[in-house]
TrEMBL record:
Residues 43-59 have a biased composition (Acidic residues). The keyword Heme does not apply. It comes from Alistipes indistinctus YIT 12060. Pfam families: Sigma54_AID, Sigma54_CBD, Sigma54_DBD. This is RNA polymerase sigma-54 factor. PANTHER family: RNA POLYMERASE SIGMA-54 FACTOR (PTHR32248).
């Protein structure tokens, strides 16, 4: 039997304090989210409040309602309008919004001649359709869910019949279980098919795998058509939507989300002026009323005047400490961001003058970490989801970082330069015979860039360019 013993062991452990964790979280937030985080903190901590600017305070002192009316000789009965009759009724103003995608499908379902049982099952099927317009779950699983949640016994055959009814709804292709079915439903909804559309139906029905793999020569041979006829059929397929749910707008005008830059960089007369975008980030301060409240509840030696105030004093003290830590963390965040962005500006000065990507120097996180004396992880948090506004547009900070590539002459160039050459080569290639990664590697090597085929493939994928086989066109 093992004896039980006690002993002391010394260990060095690195632990983050709550304040350090708060600082790290604030550092990661972009400008828009920081504004929301500050508002949340103000709501949760009554001691914390926004600091009014000197102009606002002066304006509030100078002008009052009483003074305004005192200087005006207008009779009192003119202060209000009397454009209403006693018979007028107050009518509420309703703000309406277009129906959602699923609500639209259920509304259309109401025009189908279905019984109550079928209506219930069809509505459940519509609820299982995702935002892209697809039914990605198999009917057997849906039948089990219906039996469990609604207590209605059904089977795959019954749901299949109701799904065909849903396929008749708008937008065309809704309720499809895969891309092939989606495209066929859209073509099938066209009343009179042209020869090109008939051929497109044939391609999607019988040769879908060959079509997705772009084996065009094989398809033309099997269909017995010439190049022009085949191209017209392919164009009919390309016009279709792979995500029918995206075709539905619901009468709403969805605005494209805009980017709020974290830094503003001005360049005038050969000089840079860098600043943080603090337009929507308020200055914070501790509410003095709570400090005075504590002073009134304690004696000169700092003890509560009575025991009943002890708990209240402790609560207010905790809130004051929390507010001070939060203000300190915000200031530290600002300092760290400015320090990092200034180092990036100094490193990429030539690029920021004109925005010419050929002048973008190779730069990694460690380069900026060495210049600022900060940790690489801190630089990563600063760079993540942050943007800078320049005279040539708003740029993500991540775009300024790139790997170094070496030429035959030993000169280091940015990977952006390689990507630009790849893009130019692929834009100018013969689409009947697209350039493979190996050919692109030979072109780059011929220009003096030492690069392997797998690196070419990596950069091509980063640019969102498919492989040569999928770039092929007729």
């Amino acid at each position: 039997m093992t004896a039980i013993s006690q002993r002391q062991v010394q260990k060095m452990l690195q632990k983050l304090s709550p304040q350090q964790i708060q600082m790290i979280k604030l550092l990661e937030l972009p400008a828009l989210q920081l504004e929301q985080r500050i508002k949340q903190e103000i709501e949760e901590n009554p001691v914390l409040e926004e600091e009014e600017s000197a102009d606002e305070e002066q304006e509030a002192k100078e002008v009052s309602v009483e003074e305004y009316f005192a200087e005006d000789d207008t009779p009192s009965y003119k202060y209000r309008i009397n454009n209403y009759s006693k018979d007028d009724e107050k009518r509420p103003v309703y703000i309406s919004e277009g129906v959602s995608f699923h609500e639209s499908l259920i509304q259309q379902l109401g025009f189908k001649n279905l019984g109550e049982h079928d209506q219930t099952l069809a509505k459940y099927l519509i609820g299982s359709i995702d935002e892209d317009g697809y039914l990605r779950r198999d009917l057997n699983s849906i039948a089990d869910d219906i039996a469990f949640s609604l207590g209605i016994e059904t089977d795959e055959q019954e749901l299949e019949k109701l799904l065909k009814v849903i396929h008749e709804l708008e937008p065309a292709g809704v309720g499809a279980r895969n891309l092939q079915e989606c495209l066929l439903l859209q073509l099938g909804s066209i009343p009179d098919h042209t020869p090109e559309q008939q051929m497109a139906m044939k391609i999607l029905t019988n040769y879908f795998d060959e079509f997705t793999k772009k084996h065009y020569e094989k398809l033309m041979s099997r269909l017995g058509v010439d190049e022009d006829q085949f191209r017209n059929a392919i164009e009919e397929i390309i016009r279709l939507s792979p995500k029918p749910g995206n075709l539905y707008s619901g009468g709403r005008n969805e605005m494209q989300p805009y980017i709020t830059p974290d830094f503003i960089l001005d360049y005038q007369n050969g000089m840079f002026e860098l600043s943080l975008n603090g337009a929507n980030v308020p200055d914070l301060k501790v509410n003095r009323r709570y400090v005075e409240m504590i002073r009134g509840m304690v004696t000169r030696d700092g003890k509560p005047t009575n025991d009943s105030d002890k708990e209240a004093i402790q609560f207010v003290k905790n809130k004051i400490d929390s507010a001070k830590w939060f203000i300190s963390a915000i200031k530290q965040r600002h300092d760290t961001l400015m320090r990092t962005m200034q180092a990036i500006l100094d490193y990429q000065r030539d690029y920021f003058i004109e925005g010419d990507q050929s002048k973008l120097r190779p730069m990694i996180l460690k380069d900026i970490a060495d210049r600022t004396g900060l940790d690489v992880s801190t630089i990563s948090r600063v760079v993540n989801s942050k943007y800078v506004q320049t005279q040539f547009g708003i740029l993500p900070l991540k775009q300024l970082f790139s790997e170094a590539m070496q030429t035959d002459s030993g000169e280091e160039v940015s990977s952006y330069e390689i990507k630009n050459i790849l893009t130019e080569c692929i834009d100018q290639e013969d689409k009947r015979k697209p350039l493979t990664d190996e050919v692109l590697m030979d072109i780059l090597n011929g220009k003096g860039y030492r690069i392997a085929r797998r690196t070419v493939a990596k950069y091509r994928e980063m640019l969102g360019i498919p492989v040569a086989r999928l770039r092929k066109q007729i």
